[in-house]
Write a structure and sequence with these properties.
The complex is a heterodimer of chains A (362) and B (326). With 362 residues, chain A is α+β, with helices and mostly antiparallel strands. Chain A contains eleven helices and eleven strands.
Chain lengths: 362, 326
């Protein structure tokens, strides 16, 4: 039976059947499953191709995070969190959330992270950063804005609850004619800046709905196996991934690309080798602890599963999920190519040849 | 890394004066792609590092009598972009291109490739070339040996790290070695030595000597190299075969087959060489030569697969040399 059909028939065993069914369809289309799938081991020649499927879910959610937003009388805005950007685009995302919440361009926001002197915002791990920082930043921004509205409302002849911040203006909701610029509004606050905190408390997250748990993703891989040498090469990898409300599609996509590459690394290359007699790690270097390079990753296609039903769930972390299913997808693709299971990762030449035994392909 | 003296000689004479009588005294620096890493790992800590890149006569590629001369400090990039080398020795160019990092090809030198230390992970972790445990026991035969030799009865089980070695051996090349007391010549094949005791090195070179050039005979052969590598990104071959065939029409009159990364030295597949004489290269004869090449293999506990890889490397190198698409 075609594994795609098996997966789809069993999607009801997940908590999110509709999402997975959608994702199976999209991934199958992107990798051309219908034409690429064949019975395991079927094919001609010593070089064999195969396709495989992997599925993942992950918690994500948001870690505990505090954020301080400062609106200065000169119109500048500072956002401070004791968070860090590992290269994921965390700084960009914090800036986007603050900018959108305050009705300002990103260039108007100064994000300060990377110091213990800033409000505690937790480590980056467990795919929980984006949920934590976007929630605390959103809340701190809205709290500060509320205070600014109170200062500005009398001048616009209204009350704070009637105001909104749009396009660098504070205005009466829906009425750009009853407005003042952000800079004019800031001058109304007097000599002292507005400083407000925002916090993500994980136990309250479900009630508040700004972040949540449970990302879903489907990965499909196409590999080529040289049956004479046991060397596996990636041809293509497809990842369809949901992570709730996507803060920034570009950085989200980039995370999924990275996770796909990590899954290729763990499926085909990464391995810690320890000498059993001396206990020494024999490959504590990038020479024999192997990672994939550009020529090893093949084509990677990422599709962020952005839909209204996912947006409504709130923000979910994304770092890890597709690194998990991707590894399985590759191992399954090797099985599809060979008709023989290689039961361990990384799927290296020795393991492939051992699994093939005396089986010959021509 | 231990601190060291740095010598920057402009002539061989100055270089000889800077070298010492033991390996601990001084190490020769050319591309540095190996020396620096091994010094950082404290596997080698020479008191002095002697940079030979400033010695002009050690560079360049030129015709010298019946040979093509490749200066010791010629980089792999210079080698692979030389028209004469590309025309006559595709097997050598293929081997050099097997170093898939442009950075390494730009820095690494031809003689450095021959003189680099083995990548055996026991050696690189400080267990010595013969990789002995705390009680003097050999660690490799029952240890993590999937990248180790399939042609060795010990006590050395590492594999030669040289990328160009197999091609140069197949092509019948020699190295010229100079010291204060004069020059000597040794075939590349004999240049690699399997150490039999502690303190011995894997190449026929003394601490006070410098490789100055590589000489490759000019007579035409059909030659090729095939490497099996786990990754495309810079990676050590799991096995490599270089072949050089003299042909009369489509008939092989003599064959040289040299294997890399399968023994402490560059390994000649003499049985396979003999059986090809008088034959035409076909898929069947290439396959048979591959079988013959590994007939005497003595794989360790975890590297039987390299026997198969070597068989395939020989077959594919022969087919490539003969211009037959596999």
């Amino acid at each position: 039976m075609d594994p795609l059909a098996v997966f789809m028939k069993n999607a009801n065993l997940t908590l999110r059947e509709a999402t997975y069914l959608d994702q199976f369809k999209k991934a199958a289309e992107l990798i051309d499953w219908k034409n690429k799938y064949h019975a395991p081991g079927e094919g001609k020649g010593s070089i064999r191709r195969g396709v495989g499927i992997g599925v993942a879910t992950w918690g994500g959610g948001g870690h505990a995070s505090k954020c301080k937003v400062t609106l200065h009388p000169d119109g500048t805005v500072e956002v401070e969190l004791g968070s860090q950007d590992l290269g994921t685009g965390n700084r960009t995302c914090i800036s986007m959330v603050a900018a959108e919440s305050l009705g300002l361009p990103m260039s108007a926001i100064k994000v300060k992270i990377g110091s213990n002197g800033y409000p505690a915002s937790g480590p980056s791990g467990g795919s929980t950063t984006i949920g934590g920082v976007s929630t605390s930043t959103r809340k701190a921004s809205l709290n500060a804005l509320e205070k600014l509205f109170e200062k500005v409302a009398p001048a616009l002849g209204t009350t704070a609850d009637q105001l909104e911040a749009v396009d660098s203006r504070i205005q009466i909701k829906g009425n750009p004619n009853k407005a003042m610029s952000w800079k004019q509004a800031a001058q109304k606050m007097g000599p002292s800046p507005i400083e407000e905190m925002g916090e993500n408390v994980p136990a309250q997250a479900a009630r508040e709905g700004l972040n949540t748990l449970g990302a879903a993703g489907v990965q499909m891989a196409e590999v080529e196996v040289d049956t004479e040498t046991g060397i596996v090469k990636m041809r293509k990898m497809v990842a369809v991934q949901d992570c709730g409300l996507v803060v920034n599609p570009k950085t989200a996509e980039s995370q999924v690309f990275g996770a796909c590459i990590m899954s290729i690394c763990s499926a085909l290359y990464e391995e810690r080798v320890i000498d059993q007699v001396t206990g020494r790690v024999l490959n504590p270097d990038m020479e024999f602890y192997k990672l994939a390079g550009l020529p090893d990753i093949g084509e990677i296609v990422v599709h962020m599963d952005i839909q209204e039903m996912h947006d409504k769930r709130g923000v979910i972390g994304l770092g890890e999920p597709c690194a998990i299913g991707g590894t399985a997808a590759i191992a399954n693709a090797v099985f599809n190519a060979l008709g023989v299971r290689v039961p361990m990762v990384p799927v290296t030449a020795d393991r492939v040849l051992n699994a093939l035994g005396n089986k010959r392909y021509a | 890394m231990q601190s060291f003296e740095y010598a920057n000689p402009a002539s061989l004479k100055e270089a000889f004066a800077a070298l010492g009588s033991s390996w601990e005294d001084a190490a020769v620096l050319a591309g540095g792609t190996d020396l620096l890493t091994i010094m950082k790992d404290y596997v080698q800590s020479p008191k002095r590092v002697v940079n030979i890149k400033g010695i002009k006569e050690l560079g360049g590629i030129s015709r010298k009598g019946g040979n093509m001369r490749i200066g010791a400090t010629t980089t792999l990039d210079e080698l692979t972009s030389n028209a004469a080398i590309r025309a006559s020795y595709p097997g050598l160019v293929q081997a050099a291109m097997g170093v898939t990092s442009p950075q390494l090809r730009n820095m690494g030198t031809v003689a450095g490739d021959l003189c680099q230390r083995p990548r055996c992970w026991y050696f690189r972790r400080g267990f010595g070339l013969l990789a002995k445990g705390p009680n003097g026991e050999a660690l490799v035969p029952t240890g993590e040996n999937k990248f180790h030799a399939i042609f060795s009865n010990g006590p050395a089980y590492f594999v030669s790290a040289s990328t160009l070695g197999p091609a140069l051996v197949a092509l019948g090349a020699s190295v010229t070695i100079a010291s204060a007391s004069g020059n000597r010549s040794v075939s590349v094949e004999k240049f690699f030595v399997a150490p039999t005791g502690d303190g011995q090195r894997e190449i026929d070179l003394k601490p006070n000597e410098i490789v100055t050039e590589i000489l490759i005979p000019v007579p035409a052969t059909k030659n090729a190299t095939y490497e099996v590598r786990q990754r495309e990104l810079v990676d050590w071959p799991l096995s490599a075969a270089s072949v050089a065939l003299r042909m009369n029409g489509t008939t092989v009159t003599s064959a040289s087959i040299a294997l890399g990364h399968v023994a402490p030295t560059i390994w000649r597949a003499t049985q396979a060489e003999k059986m090809l004489v008088g034959k035409t290269i076909t898929a069947a004869t290439a396959e048979a030569a591959g079988e013959a090449a590994v007939a005497n293999a003595t794989p360790l506990s975890g590297n039987k697969y390299k026997v198969q890889l070597t068989k395939v490397a020989v077959k594919r190198a022969l087919l490539a040399a003969a211009g037959i698409k596999a």
